[in-house]
């Protein structure tokens, strides 16, 4: 799969969402908060089709979003679509890590990169769908992707699995009381967050509605979860996406 237009290199969004409403909303949110045009974020739906051949040199960076897959699910319980997506992502990450290519994984992405790098990904630290309190580590506060964020901020999240232990070569960038690893980095340009940097209030309400019957919460809690989400103001996580654009968009140049 290759870009077709001249100019700044586009970003590639890898989506595992088979639910059309959520998939479209995810793409729109990344476009908005990356601060680029819709045609500058190309989407591949790994939940529906194999990953086509990629030439990393033709992309500014890659983003892997969240969805209903869990990296820690027993292999025998995974669907053929999930197994195919994991094989494709494993091969891609082999090259991404080897080249230290700009990559940002959110939610499912943190488990995928984590497992690839030897982290322990399990069900020890689930978080309910809604607001999440995040605190940057010293390394996170100094990292260019988190520039402009306060030391502590609120994000939206919700997950069944999380990283309970990072490998020694990974750099912990953010944490929380509920989940010890909220963000980490491998090398200088491969990042992952447990929370969703693309989610504002409208986005989390869409996710609550779409995934009400996917085991994240009891469907009877939908209204209460929406109210809890509306009770906070979430504006800081999107800075990560703006920084991702400013750092990597121009000709796909990797900046220190």
What does this structure look like?
- The chain is α/β, with parallel strands linked by helices and 256 residues long.
- The chain has one domain (11-252): Class I glutamine amidotransferase (GATase) domain (Rossmann fold), CATH 3.40.50.880.
- The protein has helices at residues 20-34, 80-99, 108-117, 138-142, 201-210, 222-230, 238-248; strands at residues 11-15, 41-45, 61-64, 103-106, 120-122, 127-136, 152-159, 162-165, 171-175, 183-186, 190-193.
- The longest helix is centred in the middle third of the chain and has 20 residues, at 80-99.
- The two termini are 27 Å apart.
- The model has no long low-confidence stretch (mean pLDDT 94).
- InterPro entries: ChyE-like (IPR044992), Class_I_gatase-like (IPR029062), GATASE (IPR017926).
- It comes from Nocardioides antri.
In DSSP terms (H or I, runs of 4 or more residues), the helix count works out at: 7
Q: Determine the CATH superfamily.
A: Class I glutamine amidotransferase (GATase) domain
CATH topology: Rossmann fold
Provide the helix percentage.
Answer: 25-40%
Pattern of helices and strands? EHEEHEHEEHEEEEEHHH
Strand order in space, largest sheet? 2-1-3-4-11-10-9-6-7
Per CATH, the class reads Alpha Beta
Oligomeric nature of the chains: single chain
Summarize the biggest pleated sheet. Answer: 9 strands, mixed
- How many discrete structural domains? 1
CATH architecture: 3-Layer(aba) Sandwich
What average pLDDT do the residues reach? 94
Annotation, overall tally of beta strands: 11
Radius of gyration: 17 Å
Give the structural class: alpha/beta
What percentage of amino acids are in beta strands? 15-25%
Overall 3D form: globular
Span between termini: 27 Å
**Low-pLDDT segments:** none
């Amino acid at each position: 799969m290759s870009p077709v237009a001249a100019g700044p290199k586009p970003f590639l969004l890898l989506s595992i969402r088979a639910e059309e409403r959520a998939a479209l909303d995810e793409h729109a949110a990344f476009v908005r908060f990356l601060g680029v045009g819709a045609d500058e974020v190309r989407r591949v739906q790994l939940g529906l089709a194999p990953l086509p051949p990629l030439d990393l040199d033709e992309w500014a960076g890659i983003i892997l979003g969240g969805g209903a897959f869990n990296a820690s699910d027993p292999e025998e319980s995974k669907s053929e679509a999930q197994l195919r997506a994991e094989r494709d992502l494993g091969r891609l990450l082999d090259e991404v890590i080897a080249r230290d290519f700009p990559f940002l994984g959110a939610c499912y992405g943190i488990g995928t990169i984590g497992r690839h790098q030897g982290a322990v990904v399990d069900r020890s630290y689930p978080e309910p769908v809604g607001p999440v309190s995040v605190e940057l580590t010293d390394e996170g506060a100094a990292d260019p992707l988190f520039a402009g964020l306060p030391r502590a901020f609120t994000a939206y999240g919700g997950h069944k699995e999380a990283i309970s232990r990072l490998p020694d070569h990974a750099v912990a960038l953010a944490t929380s009381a509920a989940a010890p690893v909220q963000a980490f980095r491998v090398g200088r340009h491969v990042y992952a967050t447990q929370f969703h940097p693309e989610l504002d209030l409208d986005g989390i309400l869409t996710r609550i509605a779409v995934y009400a019957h996917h085991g994240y919460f009891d469907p009877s809690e939908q209204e209460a979860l929406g109210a809890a989400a509306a009770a906070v103001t979430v504006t800081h996580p999107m800075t990560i996406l703006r920084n991702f654009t400013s750092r990597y968009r121009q000709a796909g140049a990797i900046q220190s």
